[in-house]
């Protein structure tokens, strides 16, 4: 009898612990959800986060609040989410930098890109565009390679930071085309665009969202896309492969992550709402208008992609011998 009583008591206690947790997951969310964007306010990445999260209020019953936490190549904001309670109320807009290049560039990275996070959904990818300042005097990839190959050319290539995707793509291009240009790291894609407009930067592999308006108004000259396919927003612009420069395909991406340990029911709920948002043509059009290629995937599919992409960036960094100062 005592044994039976102890068994019943233990079962009752277990139910008393599990039941509130299950109810909390069913009720989720009961307060606003924070989405941390580890980059400065006003970026195209923030625009993607806002566009998708605006659907949360209608479909989850709670709004999403965008929190910009820039600094350290995205490390500061990413680390904050890694340390957050895994309850679904603090999420991360991650990128190929926070969950790709950083792991290979920083030996003492204060988070594990794979172990500390669970992907919720892939959102979009960004194509890099080979652009030059308007008065450089070239209008083709071949013309740029010929100019850069001349003795005393002294061209420079601007990037959004040492070890950034735009830096790594530039290194890939210089190796493939057998040319050299002096690397100038800036603090963000906005500064690179301003450098091109001001004539301080000769060449850049810029993310399309950061330069699309300037390409359209003719103040920056686009030569090619560093991607497997042409940019939907600039369908007459060739790819580098089409211009004879091979093996320079490096799209950036953005995805939504939760801290590891977030309940599966919560992950499923946020993932479903996020993926459903892309069924709205208005959401897709708004994301595409900023220069992104909308490309949604569920958490499982993105996790498989992520492991491969991290290795790809690690290989590029090793081959280019990129070191942080």
What characteristics describe this protein?
alpha/beta; D-Maltodextrin-Binding Protein, domain 2; six-stranded mixed sheet; 12 helices; 11 strands; 44% helix
Describe the SSE topology.
Elements: H1 2-27, E1 33-37, H2 44-53, H3 56-60, E2 64-68, H4 75-82, E3 90-95, H5 97-105, E4 117-126, E5 128-133, H6 141-149, E6 156-159, H7 165-177, E7 182-185, H8 189-198, E8 203-207, H9 208-216, E9 220-225, E10 252-259, H10 264-277, H11 281-289, E11 292-298, H12 299-320
Parallel strand pairs: 1-2, 1-3, 6-7, 6-8
Antiparallel strand pairs: 3-10, 4-10, 4-11, 5-8, 5-9
Helix pairs in contact: 5-12, 7-12
Task: Give your account of this protein's structure.
This protein is α/β, with parallel strands linked by helices and 325 residues long. It folds into two domains: 31-124 and 251-318, D-Maltodextrin-Binding Protein, domain 2, CATH 3.40.190.150; 126-241, D-Maltodextrin-Binding Protein, domain 2 (3-Layer(aba) Sandwich), CATH 3.40.190. 44% of the residues lie in helices and 20% in strands. The chain has helices at residues 2-27, 44-53, 56-60, 75-82, 97-105, 141-149, 165-177, 189-198, 208-216, 264-277, 281-289, 299-320, and strands at 33-37, 64-68, 90-95, 117-126, 128-133, 156-159, 182-185, 203-207, 220-225, 252-259, 292-298. The strands form two sheets. Strands 2-1-3-10-4-11 form a six-stranded mixed sheet, sandwiched between helices. Helix 7 links the parallel strand 6 and strand 7. Helix 5 packs parallel to helix 12 and helix 7 (165-177) crosses helix 12. It starts with a helix and ends in a 5-residue tail after the last helix. Mean pLDDT is 89; it is low at 18-24.
